[in-house]
Amino acid sequence: MNILLIPGLWLDGDSWGDVIPPLEAAGHTVHPMTLPGMESVASDRSAIGLRDHVNAVIERVDAIGAPVVLVGHSGGGAIIHAVVDARPESVTRAIYVDSQPIGHGGLINDELPVEGGEIPLPDWSVFEEPDLVDLTDELREHFRQIAIPSPKGVAFDKQVLSDPRRYDVPITVICCEFHPDQLQGWIDAGYADELKAITTVETVYLPTGHWPQFTKPAELAQTILAALAT
After folding, report:
1. Chain-wide mean pLDDT for the chain?
2. Which of 54, 87, 96, 225 is the right S-S partner for 77, CB 3.0 to 4.6 Å?
3. Which keywords, in A-to-Z order, does the entry hold (predicted)?
4. Which residues touch 210 (CB under 8 Å, ≥6 apart)?
């Protein structure tokens, strides 16, 4: 199976480095993606928006020309959901890593601090404690060294969706900083209507912080493999 790995804010395709080997060892072809403007700190990302990232993944899906599985971490979940909307016939499963589908008109996060038209990795104090579980001082330093500012538009632009066939694509939500019971509570309270509309939803608990590709990469890889087997 072709597996596309879509990183969240501040990260490029290399951030999946410790997750990839177990997936390849299981016989899958893995495509970790570095999205437009995220090639380096020096890249020009001033005109890049959410749809540019979505279109880059759509282009890769079309180039592969075979069924794919999409894995999106954090803000990457919004991206893969838009790709499912654009190519529902090409996606066999979408996997949301500490994330969930964002519906039409939603956005990733318009409260993050912006500097010079882009969003650098903020101070750790900006994040909540559940985000930072298992993120040791060493991992925090590593993260900060590899972090690339994200385009403002990616986080602030509104999601655009149009094809109801997206609801027929099975999904798995890997819950890390929140428990599946909390997710169900959000659905019941009307805060996750897009998720509620999807026909087949599997939830899995991988207890750690918001960046399991750093804190529990082996466990994350095994969780992805288990999702592919469902």
Report:
1. 97
2. 96
3. Hydrolase
4. 74, 98, 127, 130, 131, 132, 176, 177
- Size of the chain in residues: 230
DSSP at 122: P
Tokens of 96: 């949301």
Residue (of 175, 173, 142) closest to 15 by Cα position: 142
Confidence of residue 190 (pLDDT cuts 50, 70, 90): confident
Task: Give Cα 31 to chain centroid, integer Å.
Answer: 14
Q: Which domain holds residue 147?
A: 2-228
Q: Which residue type does 10 have?
A: W
Residues contacting residue 56 through CB under 8 Å, at least 6 positions apart: 33, 35, 36
Q: Give the separation between CA 120 and CA 152, rounded to whole angstroms.
A: 9
The arithmetic mean of pLDDT across residues 186-215, rounded, is: 95
| Angstrom distance (rounded) from CA 191 to CA 194 | 9
What is the CATH number for 70? 3.40.50.1820
Q: Is the CB of residue 32 less than 8 Å from the CB of residue 48?
A: no
**Contacts for 136 with CB less than 8 Å, ≥ 6 apart:** none
* Residue 31, SS3 per DSSP: strand
The amino acid at residue 157 is D
Q: How far apart are CA 95 and CA 143, in angstroms?
A: 23
Rounded Cα gap, residues 47 and 188, in angstroms? 38
